[in-house]
Amino acid sequence: xxxxxxxxxxxxxxxxxxxxxxxxxxxxxxxxxxxxxxxxxxxxxxxxxxxxxxxxxxxxxxxxxxxxxxxxxxxxxxxxxxxxxxxxxxxxxxxxxxxxxxxxxxxxxxxxxxxxxxxxxxxxxxxxxxxxxxxxxxxxxxxxxxxxxxxxxxxxxxxxxxxxxxxxxxxxxxxxxxxxxxxxxxxxxxxxxxxxxxxxxxxxxxxxxxxxxxxxxxxxxxxxxxxxxxxxxxxxxxxxxxxxxxxxxxxxxxxxxxxxxxxxxxxxxxxxxxxxxxxxxxxxxxxxxxxxxxxxxxxxxxxxxxxxxxxxxxxxxxxxxxxxxxxxxxxxxxxxxxxxxxxxxxxxxxxxxxxxxxxxxxxxxxxxxxxxxxxxxxxxxxxxxxxxxxxxxxxxxxxxxxxxxxxxxxxxxxxxxxxxxxxxxxxxxxxxxxxxxxxxxxxxxxxxxxxxxxxxxxxxxxxxxxxxxxxx
Length: 472
Hints:
Blueprint: H1 2-7, H2 12-29, E1 31-38, E2 41-45, E3 54-58, E4 64-73, E5 76-81, E6 93-98, E7 102-105, E8 112-114, E9 131-134, H3 157-162, E10 170-175, H4 181-191, E11 196-202, H5 206-223, E12 225-230, H6 236-255, E13 259-265, H7 267-280, H8 292-302, E14 306-307, E15 312-320, H9 329-337, E16 340-343, H10 346-350, E17 363-364, H11 367-370, H12 373-397, H13 407-423, H14 433-462
Parallel strand pairs: 8-12, 10-15, 10-16, 11-12, 11-13, 13-15
Antiparallel strand pairs: 1-2, 1-6, 2-5, 3-4, 3-6, 4-5, 7-9, 14-15, 16-17
């Protein structure tokens, strides 16, 4: 009876201990052996395990390698290793560890850098008060998502004015390599008004991790952040798992009623890693060699972010466009899945326009529902001036445009400097939200007044009247 009473104790550590014992008793009975190794996959005989299950491989030199079930060949499970395959031989024992991938989460995880399994990479032990949760979870139901009706301050003027995003919105940052995605992510991490930040660095170069933490995130930013890392040299299964781990950590904070910022860099490398796994499992390649599982997992990943009745996850997913092709399969799919897209321009980068956000090609689908009609009118006017200048840029650059031949183009040229000042800022600057929006409203009001006065003068000249002098 005492044992039964102790088992009924609601204390969480005790329940976790019982769950661990149950899992252990199951996994020792469900085991098999390595039958074949093909590339980066293992074929196992003598055991059954569901898709997504976590197994442990014991090599001849007592090394332990975790692997995930990604498919079947006949009745044999196919495993993708999460560590390097070293000293693996046919006949090595494999046992089922868990039917689901689990990680430990909690508020005390902030300020830490971990891998795809939730293990620390910063040389310090994990806190003892963390709770185990499933890394692979279903997205919230559609009717459990309240409307997004609150604007989010990001500290980036170009976003806060021209591409206002909301608390719980999901946006993609699309750019080629070396255009400035990581710099923009650092600006968002420092300037966004949220409770917690979760950063997933997937497929990045090893040296970039420490650089991002030290230079882009900074000590203050790290204090409220959890960084999940799976660099480009890690196995594909680990890179895929890192995206699920980062999302699960963000979900745990959201369930506690907090507003979370999720930065995932990059979802393209997540898709590439899944492409490796899918092809290794025998899936047929489709567009650009991507198997169907990639386009099945992308919505499962991004739909887990968003607003719920308890809290919110505002997510920015970087999308690496190959050869600056914004219509490649992953980029094209994500544009349709997300609530907006921010396009970074290599041309603006070459002009020292930072951040290099091409606002004409970018869109926040929720902006009309988040800002006042006055601001929306100012944004529309600003887009009109930028578009007018872009259409006449070639004539202006070669000196073929004659001032006064088109009032709209004249105004667009006059607004070129003020607009660039509005849309650019240093990486260390955090723009004040209300001030940025007031700045663009005042700027466009002055531009509209100047346009009206120019139109009146043109009418007077056409009618043979002497134009009224313009007061300074």
